[in-house]
Amino acid sequence: MKLFQLAIMRDQDWQTINELFNLDFLHYIDITEYYQPKDRVYGEKMRRSDDMARRIDYCEEICKNNSVELRAPESLDDFNHSMKLLSEKELTIQANLFEVVEKRMKSDESFFR
Fold it and tell me: 59-93 pLDDT, tens per residue?
């Protein structure tokens, strides 16, 4: 038996490996079985996912403590519409931020004169 290492494009990986197994051309050996999960290729993504889950739990707890009701959107279209509105407001805020800061700085400057 020979050991080969394959380099496969990410969007083709499952299909390629599955086909090799189906043709009986492939025998899988886990050479990373002694690695800790955090040391594997996907370890960073797992850590980031865990961090996001903790943040979501924290936000839910804050809402619960402040009697804020969390509810799912009626539909995906409603959710997308809400996200679009928030995005547009953010762009407006970013566009006006310089003017707001400039005005504030001018007023502060005149106060100190």
Answer: 899 989 999 888 888 888 988 888 888 888 877 77
Write down the pTM of the prediction: 0.41
For 39, the token pair is 């040391």
| Cβ–Cβ under 8 Å, residues 79 and 73 | yes
Q: What is the length of the chain?
A: 113
List all residues 6 or more positions away from 28 whose beta carbon is below 8 Å from its beta carbon: 21
Please give the structure tokens belonging to residue 11: 């969007």
What letter does residue 4 receive in the DSSP assignment? Answer: -
Distance separating alpha carbons of residues 57 and 51, to the nearest angstrom = 10
How many Cβ atoms are within 10 Å of 19's Cβ, its own excluded?
Answer: 12
Who's near 43: CB < 8 A, 6+ residues apart? 36, 37
Q: Which two tokens stand for residue 77?
A: 């279209």
